[in-house]
Specification:
The protein has helices at 201-209, 229-243, 245-248, 262-272, 308-314, 328-333, 342-346, 376-390, 413-426; strands spanning 40-48, 51-59, 64-70, 76-86, 89-92, 113-117, 123-125, 153-157, 166-170, 179-185, 213-217, 250-260, 295-299, 362-368, 395-400. By secondary structure, it is of the alpha/beta class. The strands form two sheets. Strands 8-9-11-10-12-13-14-15 form an eight-stranded mixed sheet, sandwiched between helices. Strands 1-2-3-4-5-6-7 form a seven-stranded antiparallel sheet, with no helix packed on it. α2 crosses α4. The longest helix is centred in the middle third of the chain and has 15 residues, at 229-243. It is globular, with a radius of gyration of 23 Å.
Length: 428
């Protein structure tokens, strides 16, 4: 998992937040008498592009602290350690050795933190940046955005239902006037992110270097509109590109949808259900065009929400089985509990529409065996089911042993070149 210190790092972005790991061991360290008045509970709100994270720091008389925050799923996460205090400055120790887990903009490079006593008796992190910690998200995390898009065409609107219905379009390095297209769809648990997130930059760069036009697509999030809105958005983006093929110098018969995490789900639904009009949602632009694509690339995406928890249990990871109730997935579907509304949940599964599956589709699916956000068996089963429908020669499936969600290994030059070799072979 990619990590950064500059902002809140929510370790299980894509689906279901995980905890911060075990609390570090605590040793007693007496607080100086001059700082005894600092003992107590303090709160701080870290404001980020995707929401506000409340932090609570409890300072005990014996020199220990408890640092807690509630993640975007409402789950409470807890750190313990020791602190020292002098002249209104509180220094908390490293909450988790090695810096693994969840960090914030106000941690030092070693993940300790200085807290300053304010005139009103409150404590504020000394290293918080901006107004109440207002920063962009870290690499590959919710809210993460590139500082500035270098796209040739920026924020191109493919529909007009919402402000997020935009894409950035990058020309191929060796443009021919009729180049294949990669439609990149970012993840973010259906709640966060945009078309310039750093996690997808390697795909964009590799795509243009291999002679593809790359369209990086944003879409409506679950907080704005529930399923099938985001699916309809991606389908509309494909239709827009086909309608403007000459303008952007693209080959409408060689379109690839490539998604990571939640974006992989949206890519998969776009690729497997182009004829299902109900999944166009409320987007009506360019309906004279179809949304058929030639190929799908799926990096560690979910596909069957209703079985994610039981798959984690079968894999011996019951702790990660937190996707049915009040989860990213349930918010996306628009229900509190996926199991309580099986009809709505079934409508989100591609297999419900398998009779409409385009027979010429080619698929690359890849997952990590140590994924705590999406069980890799989601990808494995998806590949098997597609192979039954399309033929084994149409589906390529592999795992990265020990790889986590959004693991850097998916984005190495070697792995990306393997994907492009596959695409070159099938996009003839």
């Amino acid at each position: 998992m990619r990590r950064a210190i500059v902002s809140l790092l929510i370790a299980a972005m894509a689906f279901g937040m995980t905890g911060c790991g075990g609390a570090s061991s605590v040793s007693s360290a007496a607080v100086s008498s001059a700082s005894a008045d600092l003992v107590g509970s303090y709160t701080y709100e870290e404001k980020l592009p995707f929401g506000t994270i409340p932090w609570t720091l409890d300072l005990a008389e014996d020199g220990t602290y408890i640092l807690t925050f509630s993640d975007m799923m409402g789950k409470s996460n807890r750190y313990t350690g020791t602190y020292t205090a002098e002249n209104g400055t509180v220094v908390t120790s490293v909450p988790n050795e090695g810096g693994d887990g969840i960090q914030a903009s106000f941690f030092n490079e070693d993940f300790s933190c200085e807290w300053m006593l304010n005139a009103d008796g409150t404590l504020t992190p000394a290293h918080a940046t901006g107004e109440a910690g207002q920063t962009g998200g870290p690499i590959g995390m919710p809210g993460a955005s590139a500082a500035e898009s270098n796209a040739d065409y920026k924020a191109v609107a493919y529909a007009d239902n919402a402000k997020d219905q935009v894409m950035d379009i990058y020309k191929a390095d060796s443009a021919t006037g009729k180049d294949p297209v990669i439609v990149v769809i970012h993840g973010g648990g259906f709640k966060f992110g945009d078309q310039s997130m750093p996690i997808i930059q390697p795909i964009i760069e590799a795509g243009t270097a291999h002679g593809y036009v790359v369209a990086s697509v944003d879409y409506r999030k679950s907080g704005e509109a529930a399923f099938p809105a985001a699916v309809g958005d991606v389908k509309a983006a494909v239709r827009y590109l086909k309608a403007h093929a000459e303008e952007y110098g693209i080959d409408p018969e060689r379109i690839v949808v490539w998604g990571e995490s939640a974006g992989a789900y949206l890519a998969a639904m776009t690729a497997t259900t182009p004829q299902v009009d109900a999944l166009n949602a409320d987007v009506t632009e360019n309906l004279e065009q179809d949304s058929n694509v030639a190929a799908l690339v799926d990096f560690y995406g979910p596909i069957k929400f209703q079985t994610m928890d039981e798959e984690f249990v079968e894999l011996g990871d019951a702790e990660s089985a937190n996707h049915s109730k009040n989860s990213f997935e349930s918010d996306f579907v628009g229900v509190d509990d996926l199991s309580a509304d099986p009809d709505k949940t079934a409508a989100t599964w591609w297999y419900t529409y398998k009779e409409e599956l385009p027979t010429g589709l080619y698929v690359w699916i890849q997952a990590g065996t140590a994924d705590k956000n999406v069980p890799y068996t989601q990808s494995e089963n998806f590949a098997k089911e597609l192979a039954e429908q399309l033929g084994e020669d149409h589906v390529r499936y592999s795992t990265l042993e020990g790889a986590e969600h959004e693991d850097d290994r998916f984005y190495t030059e070697e792995n990306l070149n393997s994907v492009f070799a596959f695409l070159q072979d099938v996009l003839k």
